Amino acid sequence: MDVPALTSASTITQLPQRFNSKPTPTLTPAPPNLPPPSHLIQHPRTNLKHQCNRSIDLTIAWTSSISRHCCNGQLPEAASLFTQMRLAAVEPNHITFATLISFCADFPFQGKSIGPSIHAYVRKLGLDTCNVMVGTALVDMYAKCGKVQLARLIFDDLKVKNSVSWNTMIDGYMRNGETGSAMELFDEMPEKDAISWTVFIDGFIKKGHFEQALEWFREMQVSKVEPDYVTIIAVLSACANLGALGLGLWIHRYVLEKEFRNNVRIGNSLIDMYSRCGCIELARQVFHKMLKRTLVSWNSIIVGFAANGFAEEALEYFGLMQKEGFKPDGVSFTGALTACSHAGMVDEGLKCFDIMKRHFTFNTVNPKELARSLCNCYAPSELS
């Protein structure tokens, strides 16, 4: 990256009414479809230590199964499995609760109904105030569900807070548009790290307040807090939106001196920034210097060429990405079709569209963007 010289039944409501009141089955099963490890088989002379280990192993097994459902976006199924875990007299631990609560935060629509029930059990155990991992997960969940005042109550009740707790609460305020409250809490922080500053920078960017984001970055520099790669990506986004090429060049030089100089996501952000600032040649240099490229890398350079009027180059790289084994997605095709529309290349546009129809399916494609790009291919030729 050279710089130039300028350089439902599945809800928690099915759980027992009291957390400590549990059935006493004759056999404690493992989660469904999860065969018990051989070391869990009871031996006639099993001592207390082995029983404790068995209990821990079962908790881990159930928690892993719950986590797997959560990772697949199956939150109701995970909640149902948690119910089965309790009915099987297997004690959940703080990781079990943190896992469920975290995914309630990631899926707020479902989390609004499931999360409070989990919170009720957590509160009975006192984990909402005594365990920083669980408490912080609750803060995050309620903030993402739009209940930032409840999140603050939980935050204030935490007996021990770490930097993650503080940053999560600040992020909750920024996410809900309460910038003033976020700043007040920021001032109260015992120690401010790169994440603390980045929460503000990213929060301003998401609201479209790019100049404020850069102001916070400058304050971060004055405070002598080293930015991390997430900070760099956020600042490059602000530079791209404002066309702030000077700061973008400074960031690029800074990146070259740091350990994340080969970070793929930073490389992608640099390509996007240079392209949107009209410096497509610098974007090309960054692209070719990257040790590793992803689909986003290819899409960024293709869209960059198209947006800057380099239609032939956009189509050339569109072909190269496929030769390199990358399967185009909606962004790739939109970039290629945009290039065709800008140059009035109707035949090439139709070829791209035909490839799209015959060989590819999309889950995230924007049909309106593709249709607009295709229709625009005809406009120049019809007017000529």
UniProtKB/TrEMBL annotation:
Keywords: Membrane, Repeat, Transmembrane, Transmembrane helix. PPR repeats lie at residues 162-192, 193-227, 263-293, 294-328. Residues 26-38 have a biased composition (Pro residues). It comes from the Eukaryota. The chain crosses the membrane at residues 229-251. GO terms for biological process: plant organ development; RNA modification. Signal peptide: none annotated. The keyword Manganese does not apply. GO terms for molecular function: RNA binding. Residues 7-22 have a biased composition (Polar residues). NCBIfam families: PPR (TIGR00756). This is Pentatricopeptide repeat-containing protein, putative. It comes from Ricinus communis.
